[in-house]
Design a protein that fits this description.
Elements: E1 6-15, H1 18-28, E2 33-36, E3 40-44, E4 49-54, E5 58-66, H2 69-78, E6 82-87, E7 92-96, E8 102-107
Parallel strand pairs: 1-4, 5-8
Antiparallel strand pairs: 1-5, 2-3, 3-4, 6-7, 7-8
């Protein structure tokens, strides 16, 4: 049986121009900050939460929640996906699908 993937409201972008990006989303677009750490800031947009992460830039990353991250990772790799980055402490991993799209797979809260 396959893992059930459910999209969250989160979209993540990563940029090396982090301070400038934070200023843009807060000041120019007027988005309220909902979460803040030393490496990532979340903004509420109304329809989704935009997270701006400090680091080497990449395109937007959509977020999927699964009940079992290890099972999901095995399933995706078997289907031709590549693990780009992992953080077992969260737990979450960035996956690149066979078509070049990168998305985040994250353990649903209250699960394993």
């Amino acid at each position: 049986m396959s893992n059930t993937f459910k999209a969250s409201r989160d979209i993540i972008i990563r940029t090396e121009k982090w301070s400038e990006a934070l200023k843009f989303y807060r000041s120019v677009l007027g988005l309220p900050i909902t979460e803040r750490s030393e490496t990532i800031v979340g903004f509420e947009t109304g329809a989704f939460c935009l997270y701006v992460e400090r680091g080497k830039g990449h395109g937007p990353v959509f977020d999927f929640l699964v009940p079992d991250i290890q099972k999901a990772k095995r399933q995706l790799v078997a289907a031709g996906c590549t693990v780009i980055e992992e953080n077992p402490k969260i737990p979450r991993c960035y996956i690149k699908d066979p078509y070049g799209i990168v998305f985040n797979v994250e353990q649903s809260s209250g699960e394993k």
